[in-house]
Amino acid sequence: MFILAPIGGLCNRIRAINSARVLAEKRGQDLHVIWNVNPELGCPFEELFQPTDAFTLRNIHSKWDPVKLFYQLSSKQIGNEEIRGNRDENGLHEDYCNSLPTRLYIATEEHFFKNPDYSPFTPSKEIRQKADRLLDKAGGRKVGIHIRRTDNKPAISGSSTDAFVRAMEREIAASDDTIFYLATDDPAEEAALRERFGDRIISNTERDLSRNTVSGIRDALVDLICLSETEQIIGSYYSSFTDIAADMHKIPKLIAGQDT
Description:
Oligomer: single chain
Distance between the termini: 45 Å
Largest sheet: 5 strands, parallel
Radius of gyration: 19 Å
Helix content: 25-40%
Strand content: 15-25%
Order of helices and strands: EHEEHEHEEHEHEHHEHEHEHE
Strand order of the largest sheet: 3-2-1-7-4
């Protein structure tokens, strides 16, 4: 049996599950996902996505969930450090994969295999409709802007507001019909960019920024979808949200302050 307990926020979980799908296929096993509804992500899977047959999933609400504890006690447990120590840019080392026992429990936020297939993460109809309404507001060339702040210190130091502004001004200079879809967890950043760029900024203005509420995570998924359907993303350094948004539809990505 192969169990994955993805940890962290929405995009960390998506990439961990996608990685585990590759490993499950290599092992010839079905994938079972333990989805912990907790302060990091306070929303059950089915409130976000349509049903999938790519894996089975159990929502839990406590680290003491008896099924989770049984899986942990009856399987080899692997965490972030072991994953990091046994991978390269292509994924987990083959000899390491071959050494793993049949009963396996991985708890991680790491990306340990590339997987371009995001079809298991089809948003619910309500989330899809909300994203469509926001995208319909934008005419012209749409560029996604993802500014991560709050507790992500690498993103704050590596991708400054000035770096975003410079990159956005270059996009306007290159194409005057550029419109920006802005996703940020900092209302002050949004206010500053709206003052500078006016009607070129569109966003989910009624979003809930909480991570531990259903509405907050649903709004985060709306932002992810909207970013992924722009023509290019200018994103934040060291942010899985930026990375997944670009990777979902293979759109160009620039990291403010690094590539700009």
